[in-house]
Design brief:
Layout (H helix, E strand, L loop, with lengths): L5 E4 L5 H15 L5 H14 L4 H6 L4 E7 L2 E11 L3 E9 L8 H15 L4 E7 L3 H9 L3 E8 L11 E9 L1
Parallel strand pairs: 4-5
Antiparallel strand pairs: 1-2, 2-3, 3-4, 5-7, 6-7
Helix pairs in contact: 1-2
């Protein structure tokens, strides 16, 4: 019997499992040719964002949430404001052992509802060619691919390394 997945706001005791989930998922995404680039991306993202989630997202008029199964964190995502009317979905990851259970769909629906609650009726996001399941999820959920790019520069939002990124948006 599977328990109901709950989504709740991030709290300080979640910091270690969220950090571990972020590292694990990104290392699994890394093709051999990009392992070094992924390690740099992971380090930068930890320092600039993941290890200071509450400060990072509150300074961007957003929030961060975790999906929990019992007492285990099985997913995570954040939202940050973009202008006055939109938000950006960030860091949506599901633990590998918990995939194919609808957790990502549930987190996406929660994020959309949170945007509506905040009267920000557009949700934007980006993902890479390395995340085929995420691409399918967003397309199936009605997101429009508005731009593609080959990301050469790295930041806490993109690996760089010549990976194709897809930018999506949806009116809510």
């Amino acid at each position: 019997m599977t328990r109901e997945i709950q989504i709740r706001a991030f709290s300080p005791p979640d910091a270690v499992p969220v950090r571990e989930l972020f590292i694990r998922v990104n290392r699994l995404l890394a093709p051999a040719r990009l392992e070094e680039a992924f390690e740099r991306y992971i380090s930068r993202s930890l320092a600039e964002e993941i290890d200071r989630l509450s400060d990072y997202y509150s300074s961007r008029n957003g929030g961060f949430w975790v999906a929990v199964d019992g007492d285990e964190i099985v997913g995570m995502f954040g939202l940050e404001a973009l202008g006055e009317h939109a938000m950006e979905l960030r860091r949506m990851y599901v633990a590998p052992a918990a995939r194919r259970r609808g957790i990502a769909r549930k987190m996406l629906a929660f994020a959309e509802q949170e945007c509506r609650r905040r009267v920000r009726l557009q949700l934007q996001l980006s993902t890479s060619e390395l995340q085929e399941d995420a691409l399918a999820l967003y397309r199936n959920a009605g997101y429009e691919n508005v731009r593609e790019e080959i990301a050469d520069a790295s930041s806490n939002k993109t690996l760089g390394g010549g990976v194709r990124r897809y930018h999506f948006t949806k009116r809510l």
